[in-house]
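User: Can you write out an input/output pair for a complex, sequences first and structure second?

Assistant: Here is one pair. Inputs:
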Amino acid sequence: MTDSVLYSVLLLASLGVVAAIVLYVVSKKFYVYENPLIAEVDELLPGANCAGCGSPGCKSFADKLVNTEDISELFCPVGGNDVMKLVAEKLGKAVTEKDPTVAVLRCQGGCDVRPKTTEYQGPRTCAISAMIYSGETDCQYGCLGDGDCVAVCNFGAMYMDEATGLPVIDTDKCTSCEACVKACPRDIIEMRPRNKRDLKVFVGCLNEDKGGIAKKSCAVACIGCSKCEDVCQKDAISMNNNLAYIDPALCTLCRKCVDVCPTHSIIETNFPPKKPKKVVEKKPVAKKVVEKKEVEKVAVVKGEAAKPEVKKEVEKVAVVKEDVTVESKNTKTDA
Amino acid sequence: MLKTFPKGGIHPPENKITSTKEIKRMTVPKVVNVPIAQHIGIPAEIVVDKKDKVEKGQVIAKSGGFVSSNIHAPVAGTVTKLDLVIDTSGYKKQCIVIRTDAKDPSNFEEVDFPLKTDIELEPAAILQQITDCGIVGLGGATFPSQVKLNVREGTKLDYLIINGVECEPYLTADHRLMLEKAQEIVVGIKILMKALNLKKAVIGIENNKKDAISLFKSIIKKEDGIQVAALQVKYPQGGEKQLVRAILGREVPKNGLPLDVGVIVHNVGTIFAIYEAIQYNKPLIERVVTVTGKKLENPSNFWVKIGTPIKDLIAEVGGLPEGTRKLVNGGPMMGKAIKNTDVPVTKGTSGILVISEEEASRGKAENCIRCGECVYVCPMGLEPHLLMNLSEKGFYEKASQEDIMTCIECGSCSYVCPSHRPLLDYIRFGKNIVKKLETTKN
């Protein structure tokens, strides 16, 4: 009895010793040297593996950072300047600072303003519907509404608005990894600088059709009237193919263009309400009412100056961080 | 036993409603929108300007490269604008808009030429004339004909196959053309045989067009080297590879062309266009279009000028019936739904199909039940269910290894799928991506 116990213990112990020796030899023989810096840099990176930097994941980006001489071209959009500064300290290399950006949706053609003229019964992904068809509306530039961008967002920063059928970007959660930009077959999503308090002014349309055709297919389309270009004192607005574009580098967020846009295709977000007096001087009465309301609602979104009579709407839009699009449309129906 | 291809294939209801309707000449439209990209390859380059007067048959857009084609004015008139017009793809494409000159007699003269059997031109001149007249494959693929006929020295070539199969349900354009222009088509075949120095030609016709088969058989008795092959009715026999296999028993290699097995295939419509181009110097400015649908008042076949808006054709057959759900450019199997009735007829429009509510619905896509029907019917021997999953999940390299690029997009798999899975949509998508990946790799 004691013998068999002894033998089995001895056998197992010797097996263990042999295995340990084999493992030791193999680990020495096939040792792969890895620069310990890579693991350290990887620690600094956000670990989101979003591929926003161009590398497939954070580990390979860390590898690239360590093994490239000049890393001034490399940038982690999720970590931003803070992370890149840490990386620069660790590696003793120079990095370039970049202004933080955020994704914006350059289409506000929801179900209510852009009528469906045809029906698409194929697979509901934007990529396929753009390939075999031009979408269910008459606008061949706008959002297809099948949510490829939402599907690729790793950070939960996007969701589809049931009411409008358009994706909504949650600015606070957006890490500017540009996954949605790459996923969109229509190139509707643009990266624009992230300003203080998330103030933004941009053209919410990509329709290059002539004014009449654009307007017919979508009520909030840019019709290429050049009014915004004329009113802009900083030359930030350029017209190309019947479409306005606001250069974020030159724009001073003065919002003059927003006021003159006849189709409300220029979007402003998170601005405090304008002083109503100024508006009265400039605009005819009918328009003034519209704008005043709009301004109030924008204020509502920000949560400032929330008046009791519009409190319901405050609740409704409390989740929506930058959805002025919806608001301005509501305003129009109200007016 | 009639000849056919061995692998896969289906037999959808034929619905050839218009097979007894003579080809009528459409009234000349008031305005034509002529797209510059009517063929596969590089779009043509516009050579006219706004307000220019153009004569009927004048070149208005010149071939933009090797795989490209000339485009001619279908009517005499004035170029009113160079505009973007929605074409059959659903997207706006560059178009030349011409307003018809109501006073110009050439717009209204009789264009049925008498039969002319003597072939005067030499082979090189024939090929040049085909290039100049902007002839493209009228079966639907619109591949420029001169490229197909540009055979490299030393290539072994022994057969010309004429595709009179018209395996798509509903369409009867080729069938009517064969009945009404049989003599001319035979002359057209002889023109190509002379140009390519070929001794043998076979006209392949499916057995549901018995009248055309017997007509051709009676004509070719006098001709040397031309045969007629009656084929079993099976879709997609009109595909080049299937047709070569059915008639000659030769297997076209994958990713290869019929030329690799010594065969050139042309559609009967193309042959007739070549006949007119060579004998009467008439460019490709009109084609036969079947306008059909079960509920249409008066479905028929028409000679239509390129660029005619489809709404003119619809008006000609008595307007859209109630409950119309879908307009298809082409046949029900391979055709594409069109966005609105302003879409112009192009060189590739073989038919306009008006489908009602109950026929148009796709059915809700369910899970794959592994029944294998799609594999059974695939004429290329592929596994459509696998290809769909691979391209849906993004395994494009694996899809490429599984020969996704050899798919001829006939739609048989989607047709038979009992779960209504959108097989072809995903395969097309996968093909697109694989093609892009391959071009970036090279």
